Amino acid sequence: MTNRDLLKTLIAELPRHSEEEGDFYVVERRYLVEVLCLRHELDKALVEQAVGLCECLLETLSVLRSDELAKGNWCFVSFPAQLLATSVLTAMSDGDSRLFASNFWNTQGIDDAKKDKQRDVLHVIEQARLEHHTGSDAQPIRFCYVAWSIIKLDSKILFYQREDTHKRFDKAAGDYGLLGGRCNQTDVGGMSDKAALLQALQSANCQLIKDDLPQTLRRELREEAGLLFDEHYAFQHWRSLKPYRQVQGAAPNHALTEYYLAIFQIELTLEGYLFLQQRIAKDERLAWLTLTDIERGESSDGKIPYIKALYDDFAGDRSALVAALSELPESFVSVYLSDKDKFGITLPINHSKQVFAGVLGKEKALDLALNARQLALILGLAAHLRGFKFDSLEEFIVLHPHGWVEVDDLSPLRQELTELLALLSGSELVMESRRDRLFRLSIRPDRVFFADELFSFSVKQADLQSVQNKIPVTITRHSFNTGFGVVLDKTEVFKPTLDFAHKLKSLSEHPFSADNDDGKKIEDTYKKGLHKESRFKALGLRNLIREEGATIRFVLPYVCQ
Q1: What is the pLDDT of residue 175?
Q2: pTM reported for the whole predicted model
Q3: Kindly report the CA angle at 291 between 171 and 155, in degrees rounded to 5?
Q4: Residue 412 to residues 66, 95, 195, Cα–Cα distance (Å)
């Protein structure tokens, strides 16, 4: 006698329910036990256990009426319920029956379509187990220990497109997660026993695994963003989330899962920051989301963050989450060696002229004897520091944010810039280098200006003769050559009042004495308006009206077209 023989006998004694609804009969559990004992000459206690196991299975399938079970009877809910119970028990009793193909659950070398089929089966079963638990406390069968990172730059958080993505199954699940991932056996140290290791990884609330999440973080950041610990970043623990349950998992590892998440705050080195900028430019899976995107739960271009566990940890108060993220420091802050207030440096275009630096309005010529090539290199560094666009670049140069210029070992520029660094040492024209291949002017960008002769001011004569309240005026920064290539010209159009445009014209023709009330009013209007506009500041002109010695003058030619 085999277990299958026992099941075949049980099937023959099952209660019945009519297809047309209405007629049915019940079978006492006690009767089923007696029949199995008599026909197979088995111990009653053993049979009671076998029948009890089958009853658990059928009860889990919700095919038996609970009111009759309470009386010790088996009774099917309906004819379809009878069919399901009979189908499952028949498959169990038949050595050749399988509910799935023999290789259905293999995961090695299978395509996404087969993974999705596995996931679909697990999802239906696990979701039903969660939803229909009478005590609303279905227990997880999968446990994940997860390390997430917060990389914050310019008040944006870096996300990575998930493996189980494209919103194939559940839009609300989200496409993008924080950089990081699940702890696996390679992250756990000090355990040579594979069985013990897997047991720990697949157990609830294991402190041993939690302690190794920093190693998970290091591995995941290397895999997802190419970042190397120490060389590219350091980190510190930010918060551990409350255990979080969800029917989730990258296909086909899909089940009611309990997650233990630790989130780490990342501090990038300069090398890490520059490396990450290049990596993001090349890898479309990496994406920035603003704090507004996170609060809303979706970016303007449809990216959905997968951070429900984080939302839940803040009790669904997304504004509180955003406030906490706002308080976190930036993952990288560029610190300039020269960051003086009310200070400026003005660079000439011609090497025969001097560099001026100092407190604004009191600048003095620097004691620097620059040749044409040295000035061209400084102009290249300054143009990039100010964010100017180049029409073309020399070979072996890479421009990075915050004014950094990376020069390849093969470029003669490397030696030239190294020599320039030595020449400028101790001067107000502060320059710095990293690893003998990264160079920049280490001066706050808004403190660097360019000579007046690089700019022009123009207005149409017809506009000056109009009766409009405001008229367009044009300020152009003309293109110029540098040691890195040609900088493109830049034109901005502003709309001062017609009256002020005429006053500027008058000032350009006849400078005022420094104590002249009309001159001071024109200067004051300029400083409160045009001078404060970000587009004007971005051009690199120190100012349009300047008080020099005993006069107030308009520094550019006033061209009427």
Answers
A1: 86
A2: 0.82
A3: 135
A4: 86, 78, 59
Angle at 370 between CA 365 and CA 373, to 5 degrees: 140
The backbone torsions φ and ψ at residue 249, rounded to the nearest 5 degrees and listed phi first, read: 140, 140
Tell me the average pLDDT of the chain. 94
What confidence tens digit (pLDDT) does each residue in 269-281 have? 999 999 999 999 9
Beta strands in 22-151 (DSSP E): 27-28, 73-74, 142-150
Phi and psi at residue 371, to the nearest 5°: -85, 175
Q: Collapsing DSSP states into helix, strand and coil, what is residue 426? A: coil
Query: What gap in Å lies between CA 35 and CA 91, rounded to an integer?
Result: 21
In this structure, the number of other CB atoms found within 10 A of the CB of residue 412 comes to 10
Which single residue is written with the structure tokens 């379509």? 113
8 A C-beta contact, residue 237 and residue 120 = no
CA distance linking residue 464 with residue 484, whole number of Å: 40
Tokens at 18, concatenated:
């009519």
List the one residue out of 293, 303, 308, 280 whose CA is nearest residue 175.
Answer: 303
For residue 535, give both structure tokens.
């587009």
Record the tokens describing residue 466, joined without a space.
């109009």
Percent of the chain at pLDDT > 70 equals 98
Contact in structure between 243 and 262 (CB atoms under 8 Å) = no
Which DSSP string corresponds to 237-291?
Answer: EEEEPPPEEEEE-STTS-EEEEEEEEEEEEEE-HHHHHHHHHHHHH-TTEEEEEH
